[in-house]
Model the fold of this input.
Amino acid sequence: MILKKLLNLLVLSLLLIGCEKKEPLEGWELANKWSKMTLYLSKNTPANTPTYASRAIGYIGLTMYESVVKGFPGYASMEGQLNGLDGLPKIDTSFSYNWQLAFNAGQSEILRRIYMQTSDANKVKIDSLESLIDKNIETSDDAEFERSKKFGIDVAKAIFEWSKTDGGHRGYLHNFDKERNMDEFPGSWKPPLYAQSFSHHPLHPYWGENRTFLKVNSELEEPPYIAFNPKKGSAYYNQFLAVYDKERALTQAEKEAAIWWGDDPDETFTPPGHSFYLTSLAVKQRKPSLIEAAEVFAKVGMSVADAFINCWDWKYHFFSERPNTFISKYIDEEWESFWPDPPFPAFPSGHAIQAAAAATILGDVFKGAITIVDSSHFNRKRDDLRDVDFIPRTFNSFWEVALETADSRFYGGIHTPQDNAVGLEEGKRIANNVNQLTWKID
Amino acid sequence: MQPVLGQNKFTNVTASAGIHHKFQVLEGMFGGGACVFDFNNDGFEDVFITSGMNDDVLYKNNGDGTFTNVYIGSGLEKTKGFVTQGAVSADVNRDGFRDLLVTTITTKNENKVIPRASNMLFLNNGNGTFKDVSKEYGFHERQTFSTAASFGDFNADGFPDLYIGNYFNEFKGELNGISDATIVGANQIAEGNLLINVAGKYFKDVYKEYGLKHKGFGFGGVFTDFDNDGDQDLFVNHDFGYKRTPDLLLENKFPKKTFEDVAEKLHMNLKINSMGTAKGDYNNDGLMDYYMTNIRFNLFMVNRGKQGFENMTKPLGMYLFAISWGANFADFDHDGDEDLFVANGDLNPNCQPMTNFYFENNKGKFSELASQVGLNDYGIGRGSVVFDMDNDGDLDILVVNQVAVLNYPVESVTSLFRNDATKGNWSKIRLKGTQADLNGIGSKIELIVGGIKMIREVDGGASSHLSQNSVISHFGLGNATEIDTLRVYWTGGEIQELYHLKINELLTIEERFKEKKNYSYLFYVVFIFVFLGLAYFLYKKNARSMNS
Done:
């Protein structure tokens, strides 16, 4: 009996020792844990939209970077470089900081604030992740612990305060403006009949007026748009004819691409979330340091957010129709797109512009050959209605990802070639502006 | 049976009949519907019509082709405070007067962050007025965004039960405790309400008890006996079935207290924007067929018995583009088969005119003839009902139209179309249940004339869209001179047969009263036998031990 008690005591002691043992995280692992939480919240918070998700990853990525940048000489803060971002907290150089703790606290704080509309259960998940990570971070003393955490929280609070004035704060409460009268003219957008959303009002009509992260990104000129002309053989007509012809000859592989990149905000982390997810795949593969990982998430987040603001500005400027409207009127009344219409105008493609922005950043940060296996929708229930499975995608460059993202909307029958081509081009331009910020100090 | 007419003619009598109704939306596409019921038992069927943001109307049928709105003073004015959607009627307490349930989405004159409200039940006082009993019957417990309601007696106890479709989820919280999380969670898919009528006293929600767990963008459901097993099954309409919950076909496993979803097995899990259902037996094969309204192309699902349902929209000539809501099967031209009316209308606020459909049944093939027969109304159609407004033996049509929020090229008001050209013979049959529902709701009538077997189910509502047709079953008889056989399949399983009945008149069939079999005495008999056996065994055992 005594022996048994001793054995129990031994097991208990071992367990306690085991519990106490720290399992330090690499910098990239820490960043990826929070990117995963961001995507979880995006997917599991009602009234999710690609617009709000793009904004969320912009501020979350920036907080990653600003919560640690002062600990890494050679890296420059975005303070003073972005559109009105100043007054960020300073560090006290006479004391030491643990930058993983600051990062951890900053992420927890910004997620709780940006996703204040999420459920209480999800807020507990944020707290739990922060607490779990804290336990695994080595720190020299309690004062450093408190100081580091406070700095991360203060940075998050400051960025959140700045975010409140951008025009998208609590944007989920105003997804659809029911009072807004929609313009009607030849070629104008019409509420979809085969729709992704129950709303017949277009999503976030004023999103294009939001403040961009980079001032230069708000000064881009409107891209050219082919003028409406329903005449058979016209350039405009041919845009839609191409969609029509493609839909009637879709291969199974194209159908797989169409559903993979659907990223319906009611069921997934949205297209901007998909770009954040792809960033995490690259980070996992290249294993950058904490500051490098934070930098790439900040760049991708802000470029995707700015891409969406510009995209929405142009969508509502041109207020252009979807193929479902034009084709059923001028080509084939019975035609229906492979994928349902989202509730906003067509030109340019939001999928294309944000995918191009992300690919431009990722290609610049992670140079050299790379193979990306996107398994984000693996194991999802197959699409019985369209008789298509969710098959993971493999790519040999980031730009390949962007191209398939854009093409998938063409396969889905909801974007014309010009929507995609212009989206890709403008996304690249917007991301290049982000790349050209001063990230490193010589 | 030979068709009597090559063509029908309907006359728009809205103005001359005194109908001045406009359904005003709160926002978007929701509402409205009409309910046909003879609330004053004068033999002329009256109509209640919901009006959304406007005041509802109760049109008393004057019997001379005109109607008078008697809403004010009827006791129904309490609906003024609500944005009403659909209406349905049954004799909830079996007192001989039809009561009224009005579905709502929210209250008026309040800018609620989360719009929800109680549905409203009114008992008919029997003197032309109604009493609001929503609270006493348990409706105040549920703050819902409700669309269509349907009465049906799914437990076959003679008291009409309810299924109510809800579009957005119920809000149970306190208004002062609304957070961003509550708001963003508000417009998620909703459970319906399956409510058992407890002896006419109140309604109890048995959704979970009966095995229902679905959530969807609900547009209600119709009670119907699709498998001819004598109980009431339920077909549920869901909007956005292609990305959320599709339509459901719930087989009633009566006497077990459960419904089983057989939609997938029988090919009725329709993944469409399912707005409403019309039920009828278009080919007189004894099986109920169903026409579901949708955005773009509607679906006509033909009942193939155990093989399930087959989409026959295209082969039968019904594949036409529209945005459809109400739909009603009826033999408008009295040629012995059911034709189909469909109410079409665009989605507010941006609306393009689109006319209704009138599908004339020509020996199992349909021809769309709305403009030829005078039904090419370009109003923004929603619910539609059929009833015999002038008791001339044929069925007339009322279509609820929404007012256009923005500019619209024609007036969009509720319209009444009188059926003026039908000359064939007919029969109208009113059921009077003694153990089944008092108005026969859910029961089925089979009528055999010249070897042709026609069936009708007594409509309990949510048929068409947010509406309820007349509970008087109507049959077109062509040149037939008598009804050979009339068979009533009463809810609960009783079958009643009558022979050689007169035509061209309203027949009232009263359910034969049968003593319900009471098996409780069996328990006592068995108990006594067991008790005696046990006593004998103990006695013998005792005797043996005494002897030893």
Q: What stands out?
A: The interface with chain A takes residues 27-29, 179-181, 183-185, 187-188, 217, 239-240, 242-243, 271, 295-297, 319, 321, 323, 347-350, 406 of chain B (CB under 8 Å). Helices of chain B lie at 180-184, 370-373, 520-547.
